[in-house]
Design a protein that fits this description.
alpha+beta; Hypothetical Cytosolic Protein, Chain: A; 3 helices; 5 strands; globular; binds zinc ion
Length: 107
């Protein structure tokens, strides 16, 4: 049902999680951005300028991306530990807000 892509930018990049590699909607992902001044920040709105990398909201993906240094690689910059800490805190917040039933029990 989608019409023909117009214009030169037809290679649309899906947003993939840096952990599991799955494709998600933007709203399902957390974005981490290297701002134009080279600062690494967590960008929950997905609107900050700069080079971004995405993670879905799974702690396992965060850990995986951290272990593989996937974020540092994608952003071409060292991602400080505190970023992982804030992402982790954000995941907690999101989980608090949106888990309808106690299902956060994997493992
Ligand atoms: Zn993932």
């Amino acid at each position: 049902m989608i019409g023909t892509a117009t214009g030169p930018g037809k290679r649309r990049r899906p947003r993939t999680c840096a952990g599991c590699g799955g494709e998600f909607r933007r709203t399902e992902l957390l974005r981490i951005v290297r701002s134009p001044d080279g600062e690494i920040v967590v960008d929950p709105t997905g609107r900050a300028p700069g080079r971004g990398v995405y993670l879905c909201r799974k702690r396992s993906c965060l850990e995986l991306a951290r272990k593989r240094k996937q974020l540092s690689r994608s952003l071409r910059s060292q991602v400080p530990d505190e970023i992982f800490v804030s992402i982790s805190a954000l995941l907690d917040e999101i989980a608090d807000r949106s888990v309808p039933e106690g299902n956060g029990h994997e493992r």
